[in-house]
Inverse folding.
């Protein structure tokens, strides 16, 4: 990003969203109990976890403290829980199980839906709630928290 543009919470969230979209798309393109499927599933699980922890703490909890942000926060946290449940089901199933790909497709659909809703609805609403200083401060806090949980060794191995 150029120096004149300061990084806001929305910028850092969108960057992670793009990784989630890419990884969830790549995951459903894989087949059977392959190294490739295991690789993308591991990357996606880590990305979703690091993102959700940081986003909950440094985006949704600050919004939850306002009357205007309470409903969007409840809805988003509910979707985070649904994503977690699907990840748990996928983790418990064998990778070559016939239902695995079906669950992975459900996960992809939910992730894409959640990201679209955040970017096209929640971001606009929260942009009216948070002031400019909060948007910049939360971006730094989010990034610091995200960096604590993301496996940088794995992410550097993302296959194109």
């Amino acid at each position: 990003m150029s120096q004149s543009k300061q990084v806001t919470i929305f910028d850092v969230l969108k960057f992670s969203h793009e990784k989630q979209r890419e990884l969830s798309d790549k995951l459903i393109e894989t087949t059977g109990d392959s190294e490739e499927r295991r690789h993308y599933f591991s990357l996606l699980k880590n990305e979703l976890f690091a993102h959700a922890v940081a986003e909950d703490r440094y985006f949704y909890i600050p919004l939850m403290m306002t009357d205007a942000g309470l409903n969007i926060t409840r809805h988003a946290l509910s979707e985070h829980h649904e994503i977690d449940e699907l990840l748990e089901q996928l983790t418990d199933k064998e990778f070559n199980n016939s239902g695995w790909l079906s669950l992975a497709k459900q996960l992809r659909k939910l992730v894409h839906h959640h990201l679209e809703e955040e970017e096209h609805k929640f971001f606009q609403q929260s942009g009216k709630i948070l002031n400019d200083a909060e948007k910049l401060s939360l971006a730094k806090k989010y990034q610091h928290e995200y960096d604590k949980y993301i496996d940088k060794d794995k992410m550097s191995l993302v296959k194109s």
Notes: The radius of gyration is 16 Å.
